[in-house]
Amino acid sequence: MHNDGVTVSIYQFLKKFPNEASARAYLEKQRWNGHPVCPRCGSMERIQTRKVEGYYRCLSCKVDFTVRTGTIFERSHVPLDKWLYAMYLISTARKGISSLQLSKEIGVTQKTAWFMLQRIRQACGSGSGGYGGFLSGIIEADETYIGGKETNKHESKKLKAGRGAVGKIAVLGMRERNGQVRASVITGTSARTIQAKVRGAVAPGSILCTDEHAAYCGMAEYHHQVVTHSAKQFVDGMAHTNGIESVWAVLKRGFYGVYHSFSEKHLQRYVDEFSYRLNEGNCKVHTLDRIDALIRKTSGVRLTYANLTRPFS
Ligand SMILES: [Zn+2]
Questions:
Q1: CB distance 308 to 115 below 8 Å
Q2: List of residues 6+ apart from 133 with CB closer than 8 A
Q3: Cα of 5 to ligand 1 centre, how many Å?
């Protein structure tokens, strides 16, 4: 835990990590706590330090490795201080950051910046960061729709378009009252699809607050509270969905404001980035603690350029 204040300014951050060596030392400390661990056999017993700084060899496996091996940083030529700064920006920019902006800030091509952001988002969605467990207590669940030309229409017209308007992608979100968020792209809004997602994320016995969409009905393991939006019964004591709706507001502001366009095959990663920020981004949590949480998520995650640019099926 870092306990010297709560927020770290860009100036402070860049002073702390001015070069590759300082960033590497920090990542090594976070990942290995000072004792390099072989990525193949998991041993830290017979590890030899190589002549080139940051390189290690496991004498049991005869495998050379660095702190990048087996993480999103593997096979990237971008210095680790630039990676760390990109992670700082992702963690602190409320609406996110575009690849164009990142490319200018760290001096890489926009294509490289885009690839970096996609990898960091992939890490945001990995389960190793401590929020893999079930949500419990009062849970708000709701879907939203992203994309399509509908976004430019006035709100009242959009509502008439009905659920799952053509050309849009549905995202299902669940949020503990004042707590953690889970959100994922879903292929449809049938009861079967939605209930499988809810059961995969929400502990039995929880209170489930949703709107009147029939897909949420019939799950006996929850206490279901229905908010009747059509009757303008928006806030009825406990039964409201304001929390998850505020998540959609943040997601959409960022999505349309920062990213301008999106591709369906990358949407889950964008949603993961926003979820990470909402879950770890509490302003009472020290900036470096948030980045440490993200660093823990970078292990075991690989995303190759070939994977990223493969046609969506
Ligand atoms: Zn080994």
A1: yes
A2: none
A3: 39
Distance CA 176, CA 286 (A): 22
Give the C-alpha separation, 45 to 36, whole Å. 9
Q: What is the pLDDT of residue 266?
A: 85
What residue type is assigned to position 87 of the chain? M
Spacing, Cα 300 to ligand 1 middle (Å) = 16
Nearest to 17 by CA among 72, 77, 89, 65: 89
Sign of CA dihedral 130, 132, 137, 142: positive
| Angle formed at CA 202 by CA 196 and CA 208, multiple of 5 degrees | 95
- Helix runs in the chain, H state only: 10-16, 20-32, 80-92, 99-106, 110-124, 155-160, 191-201, 242-254, 267-280, 287-297, 305-309
Segment 284-304 shows an average pLDDT of: 85
Ligand 1 centroid to 67 CA: how many Å? 14
What tens digit of pLDDT does each residue of 20-38 get?
Answer: 999 999 999 999 998 999 9
pLDDT in tens, 75-127: 999 999 999 999 999 999 888 899 999 999 999 999 999 999 999 999 998 86
Closest to 73 (Cα-Cα) out of 13, 33, 24? 24
- How many Å lie between the centroid of ligand 1 and the Cα of residue 62? 7
What CATH number belongs to 138-262?
3.30.420
**How far is the centre of ligand 1, averaged over its atoms, from the C-alpha of 119 (Å)?**
26
Is residue 311 packed enough to be buried (19+ CB in 10 Å), middle (13-18) or exposed (0-12)?
A: exposed
Cβ neighbours of residue 91 under 8 Å, at least 6 residues apart? 276, 277, 280, 281, 287, 290, 291, 294
Joined together, the tokens standing for residue 69 give 């091996």
First to last CA, the chain: 43
Using the mean position of ligand 1's atoms as its centre, give its distance from the Cα of residue 125 in Å.
28
